[in-house]
Amino acid sequence: MSSYLDILKKLQLLEGVPEPIVVCTPGGQILAFNEKLLSDLRLLGKREEVLKGNVFDYLAERDLRRARADFEAAIRSGPIGGKVFSLKRGDGTEIAVETSVKLIKDKYATFVIIILRDVSERLKAEEAVREARDKLEATVQAIPDIMFEVDMEGRIYDYHSPTHGALYAPPDVFLGKKVGEILPAEATETIIKAIAQADRAGWHVGSSYVLDMSTGRRWFELSIQKKGRDKTNHDRFIVLVRDITKRKKAEEALRESEVKFRAAFDQTGAGMGMATLDGTLIEVNDAYCRMLGYERGEIIGKKTVAFTHPDDIATTMRTFEMLASLEKDTLQYEKRYIRKDGRQIFAFINVSTIHDADGKPAYVLAQIHDVTERKRLEDELRMHTEHLEELVKEKTKQLQDAQRLATIGETATMVGHDLRNPLQAIVNLIFIMDEMLDKAPPFPEKEDMQGIHRRIEQNANYMNKIVSDLTDFARPLVPNLTDVSVVEVVKDAMANIKIPVNIKTGLRIHEDLRAKIDPLMMIRVLTNLITNAVQAMPEGGCIEVGAFKRDGKLTLKVTDTGIGISEKVAEMLFIPLRSHKSKGMGMGLPVVKRMVEAHNGTITYSTAEGKGTTFIIGIPQESAV
Question: Does domain 478-623 have CATH number 2.40.50.140?
Answer without folding.
Answer: no
